[in-house]
Amino acid sequence: MLKRPLPRFVIAKPLASGTTGFYFTIATRYRRLGCAIPNEPLGSDYVEACGENGDGGKAAALNALFDEWNTTRKGVTMDRGTLCRFGSVDWLFREYLRSQACRERVSDRSRPDYERIMRLVCGVLTKNGTAVGSLAVRSITPRAADKIYSRIIEGPRGQRLRQGEKVITICTRAWRVVHRLYPDQFDRAVPNPWQGVTKKRRTKKTKAAVNREAVYSFAAQAVAAGHPEPAAAAVICFEWLQRPENVLAGCVTWPDYRGRTHPSMVRIFHHKTDAVVWHPLEEATQDGVIQFYPEAEAILANLPRRGVPMILKPKRDGTSEPFKPNHMAKLVRKLADRFGLPALTLDACRHGGMTELEEAELTTGQGRALSGHRTDRAYEGYAKRTRERALAATRKRRAHVLANEISTDVQNDTRRGVQNDAGGTDAAIA
């Protein structure tokens, strides 16, 4: 068998298992010149590590990264394109998106927004017309970060303060993650210039939340109109508080709903927090079985079983596929407008369900047991300050005031009685 060619900087070593391991190892002379690209094991699969003929695989990506660094070291200016200069802001964002921290912490739903914000930052121009993305990471000082933030919030159609907040959050995180991997590319005195950037105050908009009546009005009319999928999705988001993207991604399945192992429960998985919540659907009592969600189950009864996930879109060829979030959002908006419920979205259904937990005066711990939130702060941010919540709080406050008044009156009556008794005794002695 002919020996296969090895890419540059790749060495092969026999392993104890009898296979061959491939390793990417930068030559010592480049280490002495300051190359910070880490050595990496590439695995034992030749094609995956080196490509079909030694010109691809993981090694090709690492060698491209080395070429960027080496070209920059020689003082040659590279055009911005698919490759970016090693140590630049473009490079930093690319490395962050490739990092384990980003893959684990940033959901598929949020990633496009992260990339959009990064392009926004990289596209800011300096006074001499140079794009921020081509600048060296260590050249971004705290003052430069302040200026970038100020440029971004002054949008073409007025201030965009929410975009500025995203810039600070994402840049702070990206700088921290990549600094850990490539500390030599950062200013040692100020490794993260985005920490401490002052945000302009803004009045945050309250997300819409719809009540039970609106949800079930939408669901019933959607079923009648031949659209059981958005009807079921709205009910699941409201009653069992699952995030819309998880509902559409197939995270709630038919085996999760009254399955063989749990015939009286529904299993709800929250991808963002990795929490699994089992919601009881009924309870057996001495007076019979109590159904907790009869209205919701009546809506789900209209849902056709097209596969393992409960919410699937039918295709013309007779098969089915998951709904794309944008497609479902447009369908829900179209139906809601037709039914006279313009504020209804799947997100508003979930927020309405969270608000109902507070209106029912559940403790934070009880609410989190149903919603799957990790912290009290994350949970409390969803419940809206409705009139019902204010009324319940006012009733409790009034009851507290009345209880104190009654207690005070009783104490005063007791004191008067004691004083009268004392006065009578003194008179008798006198």
Structure overview:
- With 430 residues, this protein is mostly helical.
- It folds into 4 domains: 1-76, no CATH class; 77-205, DNA polymerase, domain 1 (Orthogonal Bundle); 212-380, Intergrase catalytic core (hpI Integrase, Chain A, Orthogonal Bundle), CATH 1.10.443; 390-430.
- The chain has 17 helices and 11 strands.
- The strands form 5 sheets. Strands 1-2-3 form a 3-stranded antiparallel sheet.
- The N and C termini lie far apart (127 Å).
Report a brief summary of the structure.
By secondary structure, this protein is mostly helical. The chain contains 17 helices and eleven strands. The termini are far apart.
Estimated structural class: mainly alpha
Largest sheet: 3 strands, antiparallel
Helix proportion range: 40-55%
3D shape = extended
Descriptors:
17 helices, 11 strands, disordered C terminus, hpI Integrase, Chain A, 3-stranded antiparallel β-sheet, 430 residues, extended, mainly alpha, 4 domains, DNA polymerase, domain 1, single chain
Layout: helices, strands, pairs:
Blueprint: E1 10-14, E2 20-24, H1 28-32, E3 40-43, H2 46-50, H3 57-73, H4 89-98, H5 100-105, H6 111-122, H7 142-153, E4 154-155, E5 158-159, H8 161-181, H9 212-224, H10 228-239, H11 244-248, E6 265-270, E7 275-280, E8 282-285, E9 288-291, H12 294-300, E10 313-314, E11 320-321, H13 325-338, H14 346-359, H15 364-371, H16 376-380, H17 387-429
Antiparallel strand pairs: 1-2, 2-3, 4-5, 6-7, 8-9, 10-11
Helix pairs in contact: 4-8, 6-8, 7-8, 9-10, 10-14
